[in-house]
């Protein structure tokens, strides 16, 4: 009789169910068991902010397939022939006997289950600040749908009006936007001096912060949580930071996660340099019969080659597929990640792939970067939206190292193109020739993503000098001696004047005739909304012999506070 392979998977949210489903398709006779300590399985945790915002009818929406079937225990049993043991915690792994010790909460019993191959898909645990008052009523750690249900119910039934979100990462931003409105005040607290540190460079994070504030969110930067205070019923009523004491009715903790490595460490598996489980390209741990994937493992960054910990749902699902293939005897590899991620903050879409400029400089790369502003479709199309892109490349080779995007337009399409370009090792010149699709509803004739590569090529080749947003901000703060050359029309300049030092307005249409009005010995930086007219102005003056002339990369769209524009 043919021996039936026993596969045990610990963890039933993203990576685990994906591994089980893939393995089942390749191994129709295998015995596959998922052990999940929670009550529900295989849910879309990234959709929780949508549920909080009332955009989903009920929490079950996060647990259904595209065809409307609920991914319940019965679904996995009948559709996948996968046995699911929920409300069951794996407490230990006996590698010598190839058994998992499990504790079934409802029965209160401990038993063992044997395996031929084991998968650790145990995810990550939320980081909870160790501050006084963290146990008060009204303080929640949003980590699963059940907690989301509790928060939504409390807001509805208790009339919550003041909500504090602790943590300015992706989840914190999305929660803040989902809860603003209906008479509620939402404050977002981030201990760093910018939102989403490590994901966006400061000038891009500032644009997202502005969008949050325009939507009514009060953003507090550089203010770490110090304590929470409650009333006589132990209901949270205030939170304290280094800068002050604030009133609140509810506190939601969204300060990140750490990999769950307890089981792996206790059974002697190797833990990587990031603190997550170490795996090879086949997603095997230091024990070849034990695989691991999802938020509990570290990955290789495809640009730097370094080990990184970047927990993402998309990565977890990809891990699951690779693990499922290899459980069936294939030799499928997972090469690594670029940390590509996307969020929606208010009306802004935003995302990042590869390295930030800060990361690239820290790693010692010779860096060249630019910001470009424009539209995602033809400007005359009624549905066009603003798009602001930042590209980071290797100064010598021109290889794209990273990209960040934001704006009301369809910027994630461009992000995905950049991600593919970095993955394939493309340089700026190659990207400038990408044959992307064009029609007025979808792009400009030269897509803004291609325009970004062209703009950075121009800077790399020294055709013109560009000044970054942080440099301009610093020069204005230092009251540096330079002329702000405003090349917008007189009407534009009057409607939204530049805020700064010495401003000279000469429209680009008049500059060729009037350039002599500009002192040639002064430092000159040209400005316009998108950076296109100011780039032309810089090249024109350069051609007339001006030595110290440049333009602000990205235009005032990348630094809105330079004008009175909203």
From TrEMBL:
Family assignment from sequence similarity: Belongs to the class-III pyridine nucleotide-disulfide oxidoreductase family.
Organism this protein belongs to: Dehalobacterium formicoaceticum
Cofactor(s) essential for the protein: FAD
InterPro entries reported for this sequence: FAD-bd_OxRdtase, FAD/NAD-bd_sf, FAD/NAD-binding_dom, FAD/NAD-linked_Rdtase_dimer_sf, Pyr_nucl-diS_OxRdtase_dimer, Rhodanese-like_dom, Rhodanese-like_dom_sf
Every Rhodanese domain range: 478-564
Pfam families, per the entry: Pyr_redox_2, Pyr_redox_dim, Rhodanese
Alphabetic keyword roster: FAD, Flavoprotein, Oxidoreductase, Redox-active center
Database matches in Gene3D superfamilies: FAD/NAD(P)-binding domain, Rhodanese-like domain
Protein name per the record: FAD-dependent oxidoreductase
PANTHER family named in the record: NAD(P)H SULFUR OXIDOREDUCTASE (COA-DEPENDENT), PYRIDINE NUCLEOTIDE-DISULFIDE OXIDOREDUCTASE DOMAIN-CONTAINING
UniProt key word Ion transport: no
